[in-house]
Specification:
Layout lengths: L7 H27 L1 H8 L3 H17 L1 H11 L1 H21 L3 H33 L4 H24 L4 H19 L23 H30 L9 H25 L1 H21 L3 H16 L1 H11 L5 H29 L2 H21 L5
Amino acid sequence: MDTIEYTSQQKNRIRLAVSLFYFSQGLAFSSWASRIPTIKQSLGISEGQLGTLLLLMPIGQLCTMALSGRLVAKYGSRKVLRIVVLIYPAILCCIGLAQNFYQLAAALFFFGVIGNMCNISVNTQGVEVEKVYGKSIMSSFHGAWSIAGFTGALIGLLMMNLNINTFYHFLIIYGLIVLNWFINNQYILSSVTVKQTEKKSLFSKPESTLIQLGVIGFLSMATEGAMFDWSGVYFQDIVKAPENLVVVGYASFMVMMATGRFIGDYFISKYGKQRIMQVSGLLMSSGLLISVFFPNFFICVIAFMMVGLGVACNVPTVYSVAGKSTKVNAGVALATVSSVSFLGFLMGPPLIGYIAELFDLRYSYAVFACFGLIMIVMVGRMKVFK
């Protein structure tokens, strides 16, 4: 265990550095997401082909789930993070250079692979910084990721309005991330807890607790991904909002999600993880159901704010619990939990689309409302949240 005693100033500097590494990862991912329409159009990719391409990222994650955790366990999150955080935006630039479907497919596969390694190593750092502070601060780190989502979308919009091509846009993002690396890499924690466990196969069966935590994360991130990709469509097709106000649904969700992440640590410390997670599940379900039964503009704005607040603290809390409450190394635990969780983020939006195609978009949201209820039950039964 890390036995170094840090001053308050040192703790704050470490926390800022780790937050900015979370920000860097979120900036790279959101920059790609902001230019999907541009890339689709420039390469002449159909909707079906795009769906296939988007699945390559989670496939890349799954292929390296075990490897990512073992690398962090063996070499420490600091060493892994310092390398992969530079490779991640480099692959982003490769996405911008892709000239055809197959080149883009390869780039997205490796974007998923390295993204998974970034995710494991930076969240392991988050767990270690929590140990230094001796209190819950994980939600604020994910708040930095949320702010990066806003920032990446705004930069993407600016680049499109300035007619700057995708490669040069991504090259600018690469430069910003490299600058952050030079300023902050020496402040991330170098001492990482490595639990000595019996030697296991790379693909050994994970603990049941980790699978359950991953499922809870999946339910939350599936809802989060669905809101990212479908909130604008919902306001357009179901709420019938004016064209210039369609974005309000997405914005209301994002604002409350980011806000919830920055205030979540206070409420977790005061009321406990289990209670906050159950309230979060209730907010998720209630918000979605309200939007289904009352598709009024102002009511849906409030409903989407409820959903944003509901998903805010779930994944940070699940990661925090996984890194501290299991018998395996934090990196291995987070590899399992975050990989399963992030599949929800990537697979939730297509699932919404399939249900909407068969029935209606309101039915899709009604189905996803059940996720919060399932989460409430699972959290209540798991001892690690008590």
